[in-house]
Design brief:
Largest sheet of chain A: 2 strands, antiparallel
Radius of gyration of chain B: 25 Å
CATH topology of chain A: MetI-like fold
Structural class of chain A: mainly alpha
Number of domains of chain B: 1
Order of helices and strands of chain B: HHHHHHHHHHHHHHHH
Strand order of the largest sheet of chain A: 1-2
CATH architecture of chain A: Orthogonal Bundle
Number of helices of chain A: 16
Oligomer: heterodimer
Shape of chain B: globular
Order of helices and strands of chain A: HHEHEHHHHHHHHHHHHH
CATH superfamily of chain A: MetI-like
Structural class of chain B: mainly alpha
Number of helices of chain B: 16
Shape of chain A: globular
């Protein structure tokens, strides 16, 4: 059926033609407006002394007071420091693992074995954080399998779950356990897209197994790797929330508070909403700048990044 | 409109490649090693086997230990000095006791209810929206798409959202656990990418036969995209089943509306007793069950629904989850 061209049909008749399509988007748009766009306007509470009894419309304006107080708060800077540190540790330790696993899986010839291993390593991605941390606790905690073993052999106790000094490693291992397997998917798809002729050609030219990885495989993964790096950098201030909320009491707030838990504990728990909103706004603004900056960086390296120039 | 979002392009591109990969893999289960590739070395094979075996073990061994412990008698738990690595004395008593506990029973119903209602609602809303945006010539779809995508990068954050939900009277209400996280823009984009790929000939033919958009969605598009529907439904269901923090935010602490994840947190993670349970000391007042077995039975209970559904959906993963993976 030849569709009428845009020019010949007025806006009104096009609206009439597409009214069912537009109607279909209404529920989703309505939910997003109420729970995503309206809260954006709620950010004005960061510039108020928000009082839940009188609401956003009648609360006193505080100007930049909340931010002044925030920037003078050592607990806030501690949360910023923890966030950046954990982000960095995760980037270094987590990021390469899915790539290596994907390469290993991709080198398996048996499709059946590959599918089996994939379905097993994807599984923890679907666990809740409560469950994942409970499992870690049962394996590595004070009463867990590891310490059961150490106790039987009189080696003493090594409670990883409550040690603030190794907390960064602990939470990163948890993230690796839960998400590294799932992270493989993207790389497997990118690997499948690499033209096998390239491998053959370079093998004929005398390139060994590892030279082929370096000269064919990694360039083929470059786009995905850059995209994921940009996303990771843009999310540098987001390191997970429930994970820290659940483990905060075990290691203490000075180790486990990140920006998101900071807004929760010093905003909602204490009823100091404006203060928490200010911390949240700070995070959002910096995050947007980071996404923008990371994209510029990706473009500078000749990659598409998140959006094209 | 010069900015094209790469995430979206990424899906479409990647989907196409996986489709090609699948087709190539289907012909023979074990393709021969290409002639130009050097034969594997023993050291390399061993290292590969050990690494992959280790990775699989790291996932499966903890689950094995937890399941075995949950079926263990108090004697077995005592002999093991805690978690049981190998079946010693088995019993179903922990499960019997867990399922007679009022708090756990309510929590199970709450979790199943939230997951069922939430997933149904999210799927209807997302499928409609994805189809509504998938016809490339329709009026306004560009604008709505941008409206959706913006929310992936800009959000009011925790506190403004909390204030909106409580301001609408959501505190202590069921809908507060469902509606605020009711749509995932990523899931909509994945669905949309699939619907856009549905053959235009098929749709035009249906239109010639007098079918409207609702009819086309129901009789043409949905039947041809079962795999992605299953995957997205699993994503939503898992999200609702696992939700934990919003319970802390929107439910009073003494609420009977605890879902299972919250019971797991309180009873296993925290090691506290459950309010309102039999003899107010869930797991301690019963001699025939080791508290540890009971705890592990709760862990297993939170896993069971996932393990039931997972095998059926998991085989579709390669076809449709790439954007979801990027998000995580």
């Amino acid at each position: 059926m030849a569709a009428p061209s845009r020019r010949s049909v007025g806006l009104w008749s096009r609206l009439r033609r597409d009214r069912s399509l537009l109607l279909m988007t209404v529920p989703a748009v309505a939910l997003l407006v109420v729970f995503n766009y309206v809260p954006l306007f709620g950010l004005v509470t960061a510039f108020q002394n928000y009082d839940p009894l009188v609401g956003v419309w009648h609360s006193d304006w505080a100007g930049l007071d909340q931010f002044r107080q925030l920037f003078g708060d050592p607990l806030f800077w501690e949360a910023v420091k923890n966030t950046l540190y954990l982000s960095f540790v995760q980037l270094v330790l987590f990021f390469p693992i899915p790539i290596v696993l994907a390469l290993l899986l991709n080198s398996l010839l048996s499709q059946r074995l590959r599918n089996l291993i994939q379905s097993i390593v994807y599984l923890p991605h679907f666990f809740s954080w409560v469950l994942a941390i409970t499992i870690f606790q049962q394996m590595l905690g004070g009463a867990g399998v590891l310490n059961q073993f150490l106790r039987v052999h009189d080696i003493g106790i090594w409670d990883i779950m409550t040690n603030p000094h190794t907390f960064a490693l602990l939470v990163t291992s948890e993230v690796i356990w839960k998400e590294a397997g799932w992270g493989i998917i993207v790389f497997l798809a990118a690997l499948a897209a690499i033209n096998t002729d390239l491998y053959e050609a370079s093998a004929v030219d005398g390139a060994g197994r590892f030279r082929r990885i370096w000269h064919v495989t990694l360039p083929g993964l470059r786009g995905v790797i850059m995209l994921l790096l940009v996303l990771r950098l843009g999310n540098a201030l987001t390191v997970g929330f429930e994970q820290f909320l659940i483990q905060r009491d075990a290691v203490g707030h000075d180790t486990a508070d990140v920006l998101d838990t900071f807004s929760f504990y010093y905003g909602i728990s204490t009823g100091n909403y404006s203060y928490g909103a200010a911390a949240g706004l700070f995070k959002s603004v910096i995050s947007l700048l980071l996404i923008w900056g990371a994209n510029r960086l990706a473009h500078a390296f000749g990659s598409d990044g998140l959006y094209r120039r | 409109m010069t900015d094209t979002i790469a995430v979206e392009r990424g899906t479409e591109r990647a989907d196409r490649t996986t489709a090609v990969g699948r087709r190539a893999g289907r012909g023979s289960r074990r393709p021969a090693r290409p002639p130009w590739e050097e034969p594997p070395t023993a050291v390399g094979q061993t290292a590969k086997g050990l690494t992959l075996g280790g990775v699989v073990a790291v996932v499966l061994v903890p689950l094995w230990i937890i399941v075995v412990t949950s079926f263990s008698t108090p004697g077995a738990v005592n002999r093991a000095g805690g978690l049981v690595l190998w079946p010693d004395g088995l019993t179903i008593e922990p499960y019997r006791e867990m399922l007679t506990d009022p708090t756990v029973r309510t929590a199970l119903l709450v979790s199943l209810g939230i997951t069922g209602v939430g997933t149904a609602m999210s799927m209807v809303v997302s499928i409609l929206c994805a189809y509504g945006l998938s016809r490339s010539r329709s009026v306004g779809h560009r604008f709505i798409l941008v409206l959706l995508i913006v929310t992936m990068f800009v959000s009011g954050g925790l506190i403004p959202t909390f204030l909106v939900v409580t301001g609408l009277g959501g505190y202590g209400q069921w809908w507060a656990l469902i509606l605020p996280s009711g749509v995932s823009v990523f899931n909509i984009l994945v669905l949309r990418a699939f619907y856009s790929d549905t053959s235009a000939d098929l749709i035009d033919a249906a239109r010639m036969d007098g079918a409207g958009d609702w009819r086309i969605l129901w009789s043409v598009v949905l039947p041809t995209s079962r795999a992605v529907t299953a995957v997205i439904a699993l994503f939503y269901a898992v999200g609702y089943w696992n939700s934990f923090f919003n319970v802390m935010l929107y439910m009073p602490t003494d609420s009977p509306k605890w879902p299972l994840q919250y019971v797991l947190y309180t009873y296993v993670n925290r090691g506290n007793s459950l309010p309102g349970s039999l003899n107010s000391g869930f797991g301690t007042a019963h001699a025939q069950t080791a508290p540890l077995s009971l705890q592990m039975a709760v862990v297993v209970l939170t896993l069971v629904p996932l393990l039931i559904v997972y095998p059926f959906v998991q085989k579709h993963f390669r076809a449709g989850v790439l954007t979801g993976a990027i998000k995580g």
